[in-house]
Amino acid sequence: MEQTATYTLRRVQEADEALLLELYSSTRADELALVPWDAVQKQAFLQMQFSAQQRHYRAYFPHARHEMIEAEGQPVGRLYVDRRETEIRILDVTLLPETRRRGIGTIILQNLMKEAVQANKSLSISVESFNRSLRLFQRLGFVKMEESGASWLMEWRAGS
């Protein structure tokens, strides 16, 4: 019998800061493996970039919900969503590497798709063209709407 991945969401709290940095760092691991920096330099860079990302989200998406994804009672990821008048914009969905490929991301996206249908809104996310999760978005029916450098604005609409 196949088990369906389950998760819960809760608001990000100040105590989550270290895990949020770890999640962010996991998304940059492949790229940082290519630079000749030592661990201290890499950590300083990651902290600086993470802080800049957090400031950007707060400044440009002040009404977005920042939530922790929990599975089996443990925080395993983050989900930032900005619900707009005609669109639900996923700002970020990231799972810890050891919890990926268990179906949690798929279920989260499918639930957001259901929400978009019920609200008669599109669902969108900006994804880097080299991001491994791009295949998941394409498989679920997201299509590229815009391209800006290495970043693609992907959109899903009911019936697409």
CATH topology: Aminopeptidase
Summarize the main sheet: 7 strands, mixed
Please identify the structural class as seen in this structure.
alpha+beta
Number-wise, the strands total 7
As a whole number of angstroms, the C-alpha radius of gyration is: 16 Å
Discrete helix count? 4
The helix content, as a percent range, equals 25-40%
Q: SSE order in H/E notation?
A: EHHEEEHEHEE
- Order of strands across the widest beta sheet? 1-2-3-4-5-7-6
Summarize the structure.
The protein is α+β, with helices and mostly antiparallel strands.
Task: Explain the overall architecture.
38% of the residues lie in helices and 31% in strands. The chain has 160 residues and is of the alpha+beta class. It has a single domain, classed as Gcn5-related N-acetyltransferase (GNAT) (Aminopeptidase, 3-Layer(aba) Sandwich). A seven-stranded mixed sheet has the order 1-2-3-4-5-7-6, with helices on both faces. α1 crosses α2. It starts with 7 loop residues before the first strand and ends with a strand. 18% of the residues are buried.
List the SSEs and their pairings.
Blueprint: E1 8-11, H1 17-32, H2 39-60, E2 65-71, E3 74-83, E4 87-95, H3 104-119, E5 122-128, H4 134-139, E6 143-148, E7 151-156
Parallel strand pairs: 4-5
Antiparallel strand pairs: 1-2, 2-3, 3-4, 5-7, 6-7
Helix pairs in contact: 1-2
Main attributes?
Aminopeptidase; 7 strands; 160 residues; 4 helices; seven-stranded mixed β-sheet; 31% strand; alpha+beta
